[in-house]
Each structure stands twice: as structure tokens, then as C-alpha cells.
Write a structure and sequence with these properties.
The chain is built from 7 helices and 6 strands. By secondary structure, it is of the alpha/beta class. Strand 4, helix 5 and strand 5 form a beta-alpha-beta unit. Helix 1 packs antiparallel against helix 2. The longest helix has 23 residues.
């Protein structure tokens, strides 16, 4: 089993929308969490908070760099994100005026393409469990949309990843970022990517952390990475002249969406 944790980032008044994710095998999750909380206790022993891009300051910069080092050194944990130009999204014409529908459509494309990439190029034959940062507390509509996401993903993946015993995606559920080290790491890395793409210069501490990440991993956060890049992978979603219709859940396998 492989776990995928997902968080969305949209900087206020910014141009770009991002989905960030952390991918790791289930068997290393508990070790990942223990190491994270041990570092947390060492850096913030009296704080009841969480790692967040918006909380980075000069006083916390050294601590945030240690969490980046933690992620860099932890094997088999990868960060992947997709960057969307929100100025080119026509929700009225292609998403029935429903921004939530558009949100889940783009999330579907992001997840299905990355799972297929693992299957095709890395010979991954595991099942997946998805954890999305909770957007609304105990929202019945959100729960329904998560189950729809699971359905449309499996409609596609059960065909394209046919060596995996269906269903490919076993479960999709919401999670609380305060209790999720994975989502907290995603928040910081996705925030760094989004800040870089926007070209913001408002915080010297954030700019220092961006430079630290770029030097550590040997890349630029404001540009796409090669397709099969591991550890940090950045995909710029390019819209076609006529965007694809939003996938819909179907009653049975065999009528998968594309």
C-alpha cells in the first residue's frame, strides 16, 4: 500500500493554484511520523501549532530549514505538485460554474497521471490510499465528493494500471493538518513553489528558505522539473484549447473517464 497526502495552495490575490502531495509507502509512515515529532519537540517544545508556509519568519527560519533537511534525508518520501494558471480557468464554460467541481477535476488529473507514471515507469504495483487536507469541517458535500473522486480514479486506473488487483485506490478520506506531519511538510514545500511562481519578494525569510531548498535539491522552484524527477517534482499544467470534460462517477467499471 502507498499513501498519498494532498493539500491545496492558493496565495491570496495570486495568479497560481497548486496541488501539493507527499507520496510514501505505508510501511515507512510510522517512522516518518516519529522522526517528525521528535524534531518538532526539539525545535518547538512549548508550541501548540503546526508548520505552515504563512508562519515562516526570521526567527523560525533555522527551524524550518531543519524540517527541509529532514524531508531531504528521509528515503522513499517524494513531494509532487502541479501548478495551474488560475487566469486561464473558465469555470463557467467548462465546470458548470462550479469551482468545487473544477477543484476535484484538476485533482483527478493530477493524481491519475502520477499514479500511472509510477505504474508505467517505476513498475509500482501497489494499491493507494489518499488523504486530503480537510477543507470544511464535517461537510457532507465534501465527503460525497471524496467518494466520487475515488470512483472516477478507479474507473480510469483499473483499466490503465491493470496489473493491480482492483480497486487501485482503496480509500479517499479527509485528514486534519495539525495531526498530519505529511500535510505540514506539503504546506511548506507547496508554499515555497507557489511563492516562487508568483515572483513575490515580500519576505526575506521566505526567500532565504526558497534559496535553501533550491540549493539543497539542485533545482529552481519557479520552473517545471523533468517528467521523472524524484524527491521534488513540479508539473506545470498546460490547458488545451478545449479543456477536457470533468470526469463523472459511473455505476460500473468499463465506462472509465479519460
Amino acid at each position: 500500500m502507498r499513501y498519498i497526502f494532498v493539500d491545496e495552495s492558493r496565495i491570496s490575490k495570486g495568479r497560481f493554484q497548486l496541488f501539493g502531495s507527499l507520496w510514501l509507502p505505508r510501511e515507512i509512515q510510522q517512522e516518518f511520523r516519529r522522526a517528525f515529532w521528535n524534531l518538532w519537540d526539539a525545535e518547538f517544545p512549548s508550541r501548540r501549532s503546526e508548520l505552515k508556509w504563512t508562519k515562516i519568519s526570521k526567527g523560525k527560519l533555522a527551524s524550518y530549514q531543519k524540517f527541509i533537511d529532514f524531508f531531504a534525508k528521509f528515503p522513499r518520501a517524494d513531494f509532487r505538485c502541479v501548478v495551474l494558471d488560475a487566469h486561464t480557468i473558465d469555470y463557467k464554460e467548462f465546470h458548470e460554474g462550479d469551482e468545487e467541481l473544477g477543484f476535484y477535476k484538476f485533482l483527478y488529473f493530477f493524481l491519475s497521471r502520477n499514479i500511472e507514471k509510477d505504474y508505467q515507469y517505476r513498475a509500482v504495483r501497489d494499491h493507494y490510499q489518499l488523504f486530503l487536507d480537510r477543507r470544511r469541517k464535517e461537510d457532507v458535500i465534501e465527503v460525497g465528493r471524496l467518494q466520487d473522486l475515488k470512483t472516477v480514479l478507479n474507473n480510469r486506473l483499473d483499466d490503465t494500471c491493470n496489473a493491480i488487483v482492483p480497486p487501485c485506490v482503496k480509500n479517499v478520506e479527509a485528514t486534519d493538518s495539525k495531526a498530519s506531519p505529511e500535510v505540514q511538510i506539503i504546506d511548506v514545500l507547496t508554499g515555497a513553489v507557489g511563492y516562487s511562481w508568483e515572483g513575490f519578494q515580500t519576505s526575506s525569510a521566505k526567500l532565504h528558505l526558497i534559496s535553501y531548498i533550491e540549493n539543497l535539491f539542485g533545482l529552481k522552484l519557479n520552473a517545471p522539473t523533468p517528467y521523472l524527477t524524484e524527491k521534488i517534482n513540479i508539473w506545470k499544467f498546460e490547458f488545451q484549447n478545449k479543456p477536457k470534460s470533468a470526469p463523472r462517477p459511473t455505476p460500473s467499471k468499463g465506462s472509465g473517464v479519460h
